[in-house]
């Protein structure tokens, strides 16, 4: 299997001849955020058999990026997302399925399980709590956990189960992380609980608010390296691959 990190929470996972794309975000700029590191993902990144959306925040459910996906792509979104984000209904070239924690969807040789996340799943800045924030476990040649955005929660291991690979958020897009996020320390704690064979840090070092370059810049630059250091202490048995934007890692996972 192979994993490519395009930046933020966007990855391509290739397993069992199926291409899976997580939280597609191909924008150079999003509202007050500007892409500060890594090129905008190329057209190659738009091609997927399956795309996963973890929650409704605009940096994870980005309608223009979803519109760029290849026709016929299967798209999994949190339950009631089309009601909260009506623009989803206009993406008629995609095959949309709503899911909630516990739901299972089969795509080719892959089985995808939706699992809960501890995160505000609303379409911000305002909106009712209609849709759950999700993570996903993709089971094929390997079992891969894409956490989306989440904080630690007691039932994480119970819901996720044994996995080979964990794609864990370790930062954010601003100088302060709010409730329901993993920083490098909490991500290392999650790693110690989940005990995958491999981890890839995501959701850091890509977007930053315009005009805030000098405000806590270490929160932009440092999370990846900090996670590598803390993971080695908390879960030394886990191989951590810190990828650059657009870089890939090919994994041999023995079951």
Please, could you describe this protein's structure?
Residues 19-204 form the Metallo-beta-lactamase domain. Pfam families: Lactamase_B_2. This is L-ascorbate metabolism protein UlaG (Beta-lactamase superfamily). There is one protein chain. The strands form 3 sheets. A 7-stranded mixed β-sheet has the order 8-7-6-3-2-1-17, with no helix packed on it. The chain has a 7-stranded mixed β-sheet with strand order 9-10-11-12-13-14-16. Strand 7, helix 2 and strand 8 form a beta-alpha-beta unit. The protein has 6 helices and 17 strands. The chain has helices at residues 63-67, 81-84, 156-160, 184-194, 218-221, 223-234, and strands at 2-7, 10-15, 18-22, 29-30, 33-35, 50-52, 74-78, 95-99, 104-107, 110-116, 134-139, 143-146, 165-169, 198-202, 207-209, 239-240, 248-250. It is globular, with a radius of gyration of 17 Å. By secondary structure, the chain is of the alpha/beta class. 16% of the residues lie in helices and 29% in strands. The longest helix has 12 residues, at 223-234.
Task: Give descriptors for this structure.
255 residues, alpha/beta, 7-stranded mixed sheet, 6 helices, 16% helix, 29% strand
- Ranges with pLDDT <50 over ≥5 residues? none
- List how many beta strands DSSP finds: 17
Estimate percent helicity. 10-25%
Decide which structural class fits the backbone.
alpha/beta
Distance between the termini: 13 Å
Radius of gyration (Å): 17 Å
Strand order of the largest sheet: 8-7-6-3-2-1-17
H-E string? EEEEEEHEHEEEEEHEHEEHHEE
Q: In DSSP terms, counting alpha (H) and pi (I) runs of 4 or more, how many helices?
A: 6
Share in β-strands: 25-35%
Largest sheet: 7 strands, mixed
Mean pLDDT: 95
